Amino acid sequence: MLTPKKVKHRKHHRGRISGFATQKTNLSFGAFGLKVMEAGWVSARQIEAARRAITRLLHRGGKIWIRVFPDKAVTIKGSEIRMGGGKGPVDHYVAVVKPGTIMFELDGITPALAKEALDLAAYKLSVKTKFIAKI
Fold it and tell me: Is the Cβ–Cβ distance between 27 and 100 less than 8 Å?
């Protein structure tokens, strides 16, 4: 799974997600892409599951680019823990995505195969997405 090698701060604030994406909004590498339609967090496990779904369908054909990276630490405190005692340990990492962000790009395959592959990937993600193609 994707995790940062080194982080400046071990634990993050949760933060608020508002507005639209300003970066990663156009297809830069491939001819087909998966665009996010709503704001949210996408975990490293979800990104890996989507990547595996795509690669299984393509059978080593085409090329895949993953445009998002999970670099936000999410902490969890155990259930039935008393108040106080500080923030819990880092549990997993997430990527913060906003509407308009392109998560995956594909190239070197037919449009029908790309649509099928990205639909399989979209099923693994926790945000609404849309298939886009370069025309």
Answer: no
